[in-house]
Write a structure and sequence with these properties.
about 35% helix, about 220 residues, Rossmann fold, nine-stranded mixed sheet, alpha/beta
Length: about 220
């Protein structure tokens, strides 16, 4: 089984990713936590955890035995510019560099729609610029990667159906459940390899949508 480091494991999307992976026959989740008191969440689930903070410098311990990384952390854009820069840009870049040094096989990034044109979204411009900088760093890192620029995340029940494209027309939202499945399915090496795409809720089943996009 491949060990998958989940960055942002204590967030709503991160927890859903771990719940799904914990029942997988192919992948073993490793939860990255910032505070030791958060370990009980994952110990109760019998999930391995590592202590590391996106605002620190050394992530070598977090990468031990890890084959792939899912980055699902984020400030959400409403925690102030300094925190956004530290987490969404600098933190992501440091994790990418650590993953490259550890020779991980694939890095999957949860990004945001609008990261390709931050100035079009004045209220989220700083957040989207931070996301864009991290995305660019990953694209240029030499790592195998998938970057999913999701629409507005909702807590609605997942439908298992999405709309995917390198660039979608208009905006939209997507349940966290479906984003979690998109991130997990991106672990499969042939799918959406070295690709950046946008995702919102739609009418096509996740698997067939990803296969179709991979063929483009």
């Amino acid at each position: 089984m491949e060990k998958i480091l989940i960055v942002g494991a204590t967030g709503s999307t991160g927890k859903r990713i771990i719940e799904i992976l914990n029942n997988s026959q192919s992948f073993e989740p490793v939860a990255m936590i910032r505070k030791e008191e958060q370990k009980t969440i994952f110990e109760d689930m019998e999930v391995e955890w590592v202590l590391a903070d996106l605002e620190q410098e050394d992530f070598s311990g977090a990468m031990k035995g890890v084959k792939k990384v899912i980055f699902a952390a984020g400030s959400g854009g409403d925690t102030g510019e300094e925190k956004t820069t530290e987490v969404d840009e600098k933190g992501a870049i440091k994790i990418i560099d650590a993953a490259k040094k550890a020779k991980v096989k694939k890095f999957i990034m949860l990004s945001a729609m609008g990261a390709d044109e931050p100035s079009s979204h004045p209220k989220l411009e700083h957040y989207l610029k931070a996301k864009a900088a991290a995305d660019k760093h990953l694209e240029e890192s030499g790592l195998n990667y998938t970057i999913i620029r999701a629409g507005r995340l909702s807590d609605d029940m997942g439908t298992g159906k999405v709309e995917l494209a390198h660039k979608l027309e208009g905006a939209g939202e997507i349940p966290r459940d479906d984003v979690a499945f998109l991130l997990i399915m991106s672990l499969a090496d042939p799918l959406v390899q070295n690709m950046t795409f946008e995702a919102i809720e739609g009418e096509e089943p996740i698997k067939s949508a990803m296969i179709e996009l991979s063929r483009e």
